[in-house]
Every structure is written in structure tokens, then in C-alpha cells.
Design brief:
14 helices; alpha+beta; globular; 9 strands; about 15% strand; about 290 residues
């Protein structure tokens, strides 16, 4: 049974949740209004997952370390990030809400529903909670920390809502300068959608007014390991009639990396990170001696 709302100091509750989240590894937290998810399709909104939801608590953190960004081997980044840690922080937060405060709390899983669609848009949740803003490259960026992983907890606990940022993190001042002089930005320059890449867009009056992202093209390049890669190799292997060729395929570096990414390591499931490597948002946090 829920504790009477009048007996709860919701600001104190939020402070306690924030402290626990940061102890678990979160760098930022925010709260979104479940009713604000109007851009999400029906069936994929907070109240569809948890009827009676009053708040969406978002945790961001577990970013790649500064040295990871400097490694020129893009495959290294695919297997060295810590997205699982921020999901673990989300599950701890959900447990704290249910065990300590007596309200329902659901940590949104990182997997997908039918049609390869996520159960809830984590990016939209992070944006509506004020943890960051969408970028030309796609990921939600925190103004100071840049690229982060996010975890989302939907709850019936009526936490005060933070709402979206008033000033977007993207485009950064350096991006505006580059756009004015060259008609492009760092992320678009390394992955130009009009030149075989995945990212495009337009900036007007210092704001992003158009964003183009070729998701299908990006996915075929990025998800060559992980589950889609496993499915691809498995199908080819089952169709191969030559015993020796089949053995070579099963013990190939690609199949080995695929199994590794699915079991012991984290694999990039959306992008190759090269657009984020050159992104100036959060550059100070990635710069060391």
C-alpha cells in the first residue's frame, strides 16, 4: 500500500533518490512528466508500461573514460563502455522506491519489443527530464558532460517534474563557427549523409532546424557484431554445406567478437561513436593531461 502522499516530503525523497543514484554511478538525474510523452506512439508511453505512472525518473552516467575517446581503434570503444552500470543504477533506484517509499517503480529494460522497437524511448525520456538535449548526431547530450548512457524508471511516486532544458546543448559554439564558415559541423563532417555517411542537418539562427539520420545505413555498419551479427553469421553457417568452410566461419574473428559482445562485453547498439569522438559538447570532461 502506498504511503499517504501528505506524509512524504517529496523534495527530501528526490534528494535521497539522487544521492543513491550518484552512489550507484549516475552523474545526472532528472524527472519527466509521463503526460509529456506525446511524441511517442501509443503503446510505448510511460502509462502504457505502468498504469497510473506519475513520474519518469531518469539517470545518466557511465560515460566512456577520457582515454577511451583517444583510442584510434573504433572497435575498442564498442567493447569498453559501461552502459550496464547505469542500467544497474536504475534497477537499484526502482527497488528503493518500492521498498522504502511504497510506490510502484519500473526500470525500463534495455531490450526491444515487437518490430525491434524499444519499450520506451530512453532518448525522449532523457530530453523531457532535462538531462540533456538531442544532437545533430542523434544521442542526447548533457551540456557539460556530453555523451552519457541513460536509465529510466517509471513510478507512481509523484516526484516534482524538472522538464526539458531551456538552452539546448547542441549546437555547441564551435559547431556554430564551423557551420558559418564551412556549412557543416564536426559530426556531419566525419559522417556526411550526402557522401555515404549517416548524418545531415541544417542550423538556422543558432538552432538545429533540420536533422537527417540514416538509421538503416548506420545500423548495417555498427551492428555487425551483437545480436544482428550473430543472426547473420548463424544463417550463413547453417546454409554452408562444406564442413571445412563452416568450421572457418564458426571460429572466425567476426563470430568470436559477436559472441563476446553478447555475453561478456558491451557492444555499440546504435552508433560507431566517431561522431561523438569529434563532438565539442563535453570536451572539457574528456580532456586530461
Amino acid at each position: 500500500m502506498n504511503a499517504p502522499e501528505k506524509s512524504l516530503d517529496l523534495k527530501a525523497v528526490r534528494a535521497e533518490l539522487d544521492a543513491g543514484a550518484r552512489k550507484a554511478g549516475a552523474a545526472v538525474t532528472g524527472v519527466a512528466d509521463p503526460a509529456a510523452f506525446t511524441e511517442a506512439p501509443e503503446g510505448y508511453r510511460p502509462t502504457d508500461l505502468l498504469p497510473g505512472a506519475k513520474a519518469v525518473y531518469v539517470l545518466g552516467g557511465a560515460a566512456p573514460r577520457a582515454a577511451d575517446w583517444r583510442n584510434p581503434n573504433y572497435q575498442f570503444m564498442e567493447t569498453s563502455s559501461f552502459s550496464d552500470r547505469i542500467f544497474s543504477a536504475g534497477t537499484r533506484t526502482a527497488r528503493a522506491i518500492e521498498d522504502h517509499f511504497g510506490y510502484y517503480a519500473l526500470c525500463v529494460p534495455a531490450g526491444v519489443d515487437r518490430g525491434d522497437r524499444p519499450f520506451l524511448s530512453v532518448a525522449l525520456a532523457a530530453e523531457l527530464a532535462g538531462c540533456g538535449s538531442p544532437s545533430l548526431a542523434g544521442p542526447v547530450l548533457h551540456p557539460d558532460l556530453g555523451f552519457l548512457y541513460y536509465s529510466v524508471v517509471i513510478t507512481t511516486l509523484p516526484l516534482p517534474v524538472d522538464g526539458p532544458l531551456q538552452v539546448p546543448a547542441c549546437p555547441a559554439p564551435a559547431c556554430l563557427d564551423m557551420w558559418k564558415s564551412e556549412g557543416t559541423t564536426p559530426c556531419m563532417s566525419v559522417c556526411d549523409i550526402d557522401n555515404g555517411g549517416c548524418i545531415g542537418g541544417r542550423i538556422e539562427n543558432d538552432r538545429v532546424t533540420e536533422r537527417r539520420y540514416d538509421r538503416a545505413r548506420c545500423r548495417t555498419r555498427v551492428e555487425t557484431w551483437w545480436i544482428p551479427g550473430f543472426q547473420k553469421v548463424l544463417e550463413k553457417t547453417l546454409d554452408e554445406t562444406d564442413k571445412e568452410k563452416r568450421k572457418i566461419m564458426l571460429y572466425s574473428s567476426m563470430f568470436t567478437r559477436t559472441l563476446w559482445s553478447m555475453t561478456y562485453s558491451n557492444a555499440s547498439q546504435g552508433q560507431c561513436y566517431e561522431c561523438m569522438r569529434v563532438c565539442p559538447v563535453g570536451e572539457k570532461a574528456r580532456t586530461k593531461n
